[in-house]
Amino acid sequence: MIGAGLAGLSAAVRLADGGAAVTVLEAAAQAGGRCRSYVDPVLEMTLDNGNHLVLSGNHATFAYLRLIGAEDHLVGPDQAVLDFHDLRTGEAWTIRPNPGALAWWLLSPRRRVLGTRAADYLALAGLLAPGANKRIDQVIACEGVLWDRLLEPFLLSALNTEAKSASAALAGAVIRESLARGGDAYRPRVAHPTLSAAFIDPALAFLAARGATVRLGAPVRAMTFDGDRVSALTTGDGGIALEAGDAVVLAAPPWISQTMVPGLTAPDAFNAIVNGHFRFAPPPGLAPIVGVIGGTAQWIFAFDDRLSVTVSGADDLADQNREDLAQRFWADIATVHGLPAELPPWRIVKERRATFAATPEQNARRPGAATRWGNLALAGDWTATGLPATIEGAIRSGETAARATAAARG
Predict the structure, then answer these.
(1) Which CATH class is domain 6-75+192-268+359-408?
(2) Cys-Cys with 96: which of 111, 148, 206, 231 at CB 3.0–4.6 Å?
(3) What is the pLDDT of residues 46-81, one digit of tens each?
(4) Measured distance CA(148)–CA(170) in Å, rounded
(5) From CA 130, how far away is CA 126, in angstroms rounded?
């Protein structure tokens, strides 16, 4: 296993659960990749590198957590309740979908997006089967109250790409697995107390209990190919010869994988995500997640000991001054939640290559798990999962790679 991000760990735990002898090699000093937590010396608290949201209908995610014994580390409301605040008008509203796929909640003005009509939601039908190579703006009208107050922020968050130019096929996959299935499929869930506690540490413990080896700070520099198989790995401290029956899952980022696999086509355009963390214990009763319309912040998360902001498709913010961003983010938080304007201790985290750009062109560059080398499979949210680059997509990619390598091993 090359890479101990979420895709690599997903593959590793599936293979170890099936009785395979697993070795994981990770270049970084910690496991988790972009799904990690760390102790921040400025705020003196443990932070996640990003505010990753999971939906209750993400079946692969919950199966992974059940397998490693960590399902209770995702928390959220019993029902799909989604709060929004429009900073342009000062209006706030709460979407309250009913649990089932028959969306009778749309008939109630008090349950749907403020200012929309039930008929407006028929636009979603255009995304259910849009075709492989179309942009969202070629499939539905990207204007109006529903677009501004739900579809555009929801799709921007899911795709991490400016929504109008993003892949309609990927948007359709998200819609089919969430909004189209009813509220039971999109109850929001966040990791508690941290991403590492939910997704990473239990996986490492699971692997250790099954005799797997996890080597951190152990980069793989290259792979040697012999005919139709990988025969050796070049590591920082030498090399590893592969025996008959050995298989490799390459779960590295696409820009690294392309240097290791001859002729690999992979996404080569990426978008940023910017997060802001503020050491400010939220008052009781604060909404755990609020979507922000018309501000710099897009989503505000309330944790036990801090308030956090996430901005997707944030290439324009990634080059801006961190203190300026903190001031702008906190101004949005203070307005939405009625908090003091004085800036509390803060930390801005910029992930410049957070995900591949979810355009039709980049989606077409995503490879499948299987390769022309029988004992090599690919994993990562950038592979052809059918989903955008999400936790659910990363975990599914690991499962697919595990099945491919299990088949190759006979």
Answers:
(1) alpha beta
(2) 111
(3) 999 888 999 999 999 999 999 999 999 999 999 999
(4) 19
(5) 6
Nearest Cα to 347, choosing from 269, 280, 268, 409? 280
* CA pseudo-torsion sign 391, 397, 399, 405: negative
Q: Which amino acid is it at 307?
A: L
Helices then strands, counting H and E runs in the chain, come out as 12, 19
CATH number of 270-356: 3.90.660.20
Please state whether beta strands 299-302 and 307-312 pair in parallel, antiparallel, or not at all (unpaired). antiparallel
Burial class (CB in 10 A: 0-12, 13-18, 19+), 235: middle
Domain boundaries, the chain: 6-75+192-268+359-408, 82-186, 270-356
Strand partners, 161: none
Alpha helices in 186-280 (DSSP H): 195, 201-209, 254-260
Reported pTM: 0.96
Amino acid letter at 366?
R
Tokens at 143, concatenated: 């204007």
Instruction: Determine the Cα–Cα distance for residues 235 and 223; give it in Å rounded to an integer.
Output: 9
DSSP class per residue in 262-275 = TT------EEEEEE
pLDDT at 409: 61
Task: For Cα atoms 173, 364, 310, give the angle at the middle one, nearest 5 degrees.
Answer: 55
